Amino acid sequence: MKLRPPAVPLITVDPYFSVWSAADRLTDVQTSHWTGKPNTILGIANIDGTDYRFMGVKDGVEAMEQLSLDVTALFTVYRFVAAGVQLEVSFMTPLLPDDYALLTRPVTYMEVSATSTDWKPHRVKVTVCASEELCLDAKGQMGVTTEILALHDGVSAVKMGGEKQEILGRSGDDVRIDWGYFYLAVKGGEVFVSKEDMTYACASAVVEQPVLFAFAYDDVESITYFHQNLKSYWNKDGQTIEAAIEGAYADYPICLQRAKAFSEGLFLDAVRAGGEKYAELLILSYRQVMGAHKLVLDTDGQLLYISKECFSNGCAATVDVSYPSIPMYLYYNPELIKGMMRPIFKYAGMEAWPFDFAPHDVGTYPLLNGQTYYGCLDLNVQMPVEECGNMLIMAAAVSIAQNNADFAQEHMSLLNQWADYLKENGVDPENQLCTDDFAGHLAHNCNLSLKAIMALEGMSIIKEMSGCQEESQGYHKAALEMAEKWVKMAANGDGSYRLAFDQPGTFSMKYNMVWDKVFGTNLFPKEVVASEFASYKKRINPYGMPLDNRASYTKSDWLIWCATLAQDKDDFMEFIAPLWNEYHYSPSRVPMPDWYQTVTSLQVSFQHRTVQGGLFIKMLDDSKKCWHGQMK
Fold it and tell me: pLDDT tens-digit profile of 446-461?
């Protein structure tokens, strides 16, 4: 991988169990949670009696020289050298999108191997120490308890957790888990507890052959869903974390094989769709997107796939965060999109939700008891057209991807209600927020109108697939008439189209238009799409095109969606090259920010968000997996 990651993924299980290295070399900084707060893990290689660091920072211990770093979709592999020994350290979490047991099993592997570089024999012993920060919001928050465990087949582990266990006792954005138990395991070695500036769980082994360490976390219960606590998918039937760790060791060879095959397939498919730089963007985004969700089952046994709106406001199951993420899941497993949508459908059907449009969210992670956006249900802070449009487009996309509208039919009453709202209010939206809420309210938003148009066309597709031809034609006619009005109302007269209908000479990214291409519906004339895309070239700054004329910042997901409007691969690659540069050169060392400055490359805000799943839309378009034309 030629791209220099702004932050390197090491452990990426869920929004709480997450460890990154925010530096080029693993020995330059302490490892951290995606929020940037310390999640210290120290790695020491004792070579012939002398200690060397390969992970983290420790005074008085020399760092090994880092030879290389290679990141693929599911692997992070470092190579180091010191005192005649080359050390390879490989992190892997088997986040396979269609294997829910593996996807949710809270175990990350770290395999360590050593080879001689001077042809001489060497004794290499590796020790890994993980701090109490992994099971507390911050070190010293409370005392911790530890326990030494002997598991099956030569595996030993240290269990560590806070003395005060308040399961699901907190929610919020810049917070870390302070309940449940962290585990550090090793096969064929020894484990112990160290108390220095804080408590550490430690494991060590002599590296005569590859040694396998495992990091694991048992959160006991994962999500509160309308005042009922739910377990993660992996322990839904009562499996213990000890059994999960033993299982992880037992099936490591097959997990390794499957993870390699998935990673290689993702890279090759992405290169074919959009070139090598595009492929590297997807490689870097994949674990981030997966690791910002939690998969649970509701009381009816249905999947709930809960996102956390990371470093935005901490909301859970946010519709306009799910919406940009869906291209990755449409490509790999649309069932997970249904899991994103179910909480919204459930809440919107409850008396607690007072509006005839879709809600924004269902709580603050991990507590899903009702919308918490802005802390109130004030009409002025809602996103009516935005969220109705998102839900309809998502429902249509899932229907096409799965070649049936069964899921949409289960929720047809609400979809009908939201489609009617868009027919009445979508052509020229009033002064309201859209997903780019950081820019404030905007009346007559051309891009928001595009969303309404594509949502009504999505409803037409759903109705057609449900055998309701007359209703399908009605929604199609409404969408087509709105599209014709849009072209006239939004035109600047030079081939470009406005930010708002009443603001001539303005511009914005028309990212919602991409669904007309992906669905193959052709509501908008090709020359309209081509001229709008052509107008973007003169807007591009060193690190990408601004979101609109109001500021120089942009959004990575929307940039890729606009790039996908290009008619050929070369134009696509040219448009996304500045985004690659953003992550490669930016001094903002955080997990892939999606909101950044196009002139300076600096992060504005947001990091580790699921919206980076939107980067996969070119793959989706290239594969035609969501093309309605194949249905006819």
Answer: 999 999 999 999 999 9
